[in-house]
Task: structure prediction
Amino acid sequence: MEDLGTWEIIFRVLGRFWPAWIGVVAVFAVSIPFRRRLGLYGRLFDSRIAMAGLAIVLFWLFTALFAETIATHGVLQQVSGMGNKPPGTVTPDGAGWYLLGGDHLARDVFSRMIAGSRTVIVIAPFATAVAFMMGITLGLPAGYYGGRLDTTLSFAANLVLAFPVILLFYLLVTPEIVDTGLPQYLALVMFLFPLLFVVVLINSRWRVTPAFRTKALAAILAAGGYFYLTLVSEPGTAVAILPGALDLISMPSNILIVFVSVVFVNSPTVFRIVRGLTLDIKTRDYVAAAKTRGERPWYIMLWEILPNIRGPLIVDFCLRIGYTTILLGTLGFFGLGLSPESPDWGSTINSGRRLLTFVPFPAIVPAVALMSLVLGLNLLADGLREESLRD
Amino acid sequence: MLSFLIRRFLIMLLSAFCLTLIVFLLTNLAPNLEKLAKAEAGTRITDAEVAAWLEQHGHARPLITRYGSWLGLAPAWVPPGGGTPDRCRDLPDADHDAPRFCGILQGNWGTSTVFRGEVAPILGQRLALTGNLMFWVLLVMVPTALLIGVLAGMREGSWLDRILSGISIATSATPEYVSGVILIAVFASSMTGLRWFSGTAGSVAETGPTFDTMFLPVVTIALYGMGYVARMTRASMAEVMTQQYIRTARLKGVKFRNIVMKHALRNALIAPFTVIMLQFPWLLNGVVIVETLFNYRGFGWALVEAAGNNDMDLLLGCSVVAVVVVLVTQLISDIGYVLLNPRIRVD
Result:
């Protein structure tokens, strides 16, 4: 077999993505006929910008899902003689091509980029969600009650925001600090917030029907509590609450650290947004009406104020996933957190930049991938903002 | 206004105090101290020797005393044999054995273990280089962003608006390490063969800034910040263009150009001013990435070196500088907002 020309490379690369194309087309084909009944999601299909954004995001989502099918080689598979080869080079056994070239360790750039999409797609939305739970659970009372609680929490949030992000990463992620278990203690606190949020949410709504409330709370506390414990506990480290036999989910410690630092950086901003919106909404008449009815503060915060600030929050959520993706890349770029052979985009950009002026592809491919995903999320957020402002 | 300034100043002091305390705690954790001892006294020393080295250099004292002596509220560490404490070496008077206060409050920033020298001059030198970079970034970024924003916002929904908005979304979605990599690959690598600019700026410290070395770093930082400022300007401009007085001016028959230049622009630039000021902390962040990528030896580069090697005094110095930069820009943006828009008051 021969080396490929430019057009052949493009066609073959696009062709390898077939599961992603089918996935995107399928979602669009299913959603468009029912778009009038799908609420805000359905209205995305009225705006071309939002549709473009959604298509890009879905494309990467399906790429991450079908990463094994799309990739041509293994993530760590080295083929001798393929180091730093240009795109479209035939492998020595003649069985295939390195579609986008080989990196300095003779691994396939294309396959590593595909595998790297997984790290981002898994970590970014979950880390953002946890940061949102934390920001909402702290921001609502800070805005609603004001006073000393507000002053303290705002001061703490500003303190984190005044830190250069990279210094914070270095302080949290260096191996010496990881050994002390500090990130795990932080995780212990952070993962508590989603549980707390759901419990308060249920409790405040169904406090008046204790029979249902008690059952629901017991179920949530049992399932969520166990999930929480198995997530934070890791046998053989500083936080080993559960014995190994009961510890179902084992989060690799370096993923946990990345997760924790990203949540830590994001939650103060979410806190400030929620607090600001709450300050505005709490002066509305329906809040006064709820107070007059004798509703409890947490009911007012979670069932009167929160639903009314959801618009800006959804838009910010989208933008923030993009920002989290950038942060994950930043961590990788400084070689923090994930292991050097991890295929995530930040780390591959970092390892590729040393030979950048001679062998540009190993760094450019993940860079373009990251850029397109963030661009997709931004377009989606833009479309969401326009559509939610319409009514 | 005065009480507002005083309060903000006190908050700034408190923030700097809290942040340095946190940085101090984290850099002084046991494993970090062990790393420091091994870096200074040799990597193969035993645990007992590590403990002895720490004892010898005053790292075995209670944490609060050590933080106090960095701050200048507790006496500096005097080595067991007597003599001048390390921290006080450059102080003039020669009363050797008396405990003395030489912390940051006395203007003594300590010694950097990575760069082997006093922290204050190192920081000054690095900040000057970064200041140079920032100056060019602002010079490129602010006019371009304002121009794009005003052009896009003056006729909302036109094809010019669509194109310029698209460009600003794309640039604000491209982090510095991505655009930097792409710019180097296009303009400084063998891939396209253009090689118009230099892909590294490592020589700037010796030769001084040249167009060749500074162009790519400046453009990389400016691109990322530009998109956001342009979008804010566009939103503000678009809002102003719907106001009654603009319509009145149009009905009077004022030329479109004059409406934009004389009536709309001044009112539209209030919001972007705050945004530009608040960009500073972000620029600081981008500066760290870009300085690492282009090997530009400024503040960000020093920060990464210090953090990677657990250089305590330099890290603490860097965090003081960073906090002051962030909080001072917030203050300036608040005050500027009041000055530009008299309807807003500070309380």
Observations:
- Chain A touches chain B through 45 residues (CB under 8 Å).
- Chain A has 18 helices and two strands.
- Strands of chain A lie at 89-90, 97-98.
